[in-house]
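Dear Dr. H.,

I hope your travels went smoothly. While you were away I took the liberty of generating a structure for the chain from your last submission, since the lab meeting agenda had it listed for discussion. I wanted you to have the full record in hand beforehand rather than looking at slides cold. The sequence, exactly as received, is reproduced here:
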Amino acid sequence: MLGTVLLLLLALAKPACPSPAGAASRRAEALKRLLEVFGMEDPPPPPAHFKQPPQYMVDLFNTVANADGVTKNPDILEGNTVRSFLDKTHGEKMRFLFILSSVAKNEKILTAELHLFRLWPRATDGPKRHHFCQVSVYQVLDKSELDTPGGKKLLAARLVSLQGSGWEVFAITQAVRDWTEDESSNQGLLVTVQGLGGSPLDPPPLQFASSRDHHESKKPMLVLFTDDGRRGASLPVAPILPAQLSVPKLTGPRNARSLDRLQPCQRHPLSVDFEEIGWSGWIISPRGYNAYHCKGSCPFPLGENMRPTNHATVQSIINALKLSEGVSSPCCVPDKLYSINLLYFDDDENVVLKQYDDMVAGSCGCH
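The corresponding predicted structure, in token form, is as follows:
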């Protein structure tokens, strides 16, 4: 996969003497192929208005990746995609609706969480004070029959302290799986607040921030952890041969190019700038990353510093001794690859964190 990315980046560079039409066509084709590497058909449009991504998603990105998007620990995420959805009920107090149309059919729902921000409790009249209440989350089955047993289904319930404020997270995985299998079944969620014995509390001493009345950072949110099945070189991207791309010709003195070929196999920088590509409008983080690339010779005899495979060592010997025609010396290629993470707005302006395997050359060797 990394080889495909490197060829695409070379194609995006400017040829020595391109025709305007030819250069535009090559760039469009290269960008199309690069989108395929990132699992997209078209780039999502930038949000119509400035939008602040949920702080939870920003914090998750910073936990999973460094400033360049390179994964710190591949085991932190469950699956390779995290999607966030904001409530679409326009401020109803205890009813929530999340539109999941952007979830792809091939994505496996691993975990789904409802995130609600608990507000500071109201001052209560009289001597009676409650320290805890019971919060229940229901999947709405029939909006017109909410008071009947068949109108809703209990998903989660627990005691919540009435002291302080902060985020409360409820697992609602099965409901989301139902919704992704049948979109028409998504009638939203209902949250109730009751006393310790299940008695109604009127007015309820506990309230959650709504999607309309409170700051962007406190809005109700659904978070999905999913896996789209994409793993490394198994990505369904058509192979791109060098002959298909117009690669810039080397310039400079001949002896300088020859000297470059004689340098030992090692890793070199390869900057990917999303602003130059034209993707900065929808990608939140990172602004770009260093993919690195491998360059240099693999001369006989191959030392341990060349990190050769046994096959490369044998090939090097056969090439040096001319024991067989048409056998070249081993190639300098990545022998360790790292994943990167993108935090971006999708087509529906939801914020997504996605991890892509085999995107950064971690080290180089002779293979």
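Two observations you may find useful: Confidence is low (pLDDT under 50) at residues 233-252. The two ends are 16 Å apart (CA to CA).

With kind regards,
E. W.
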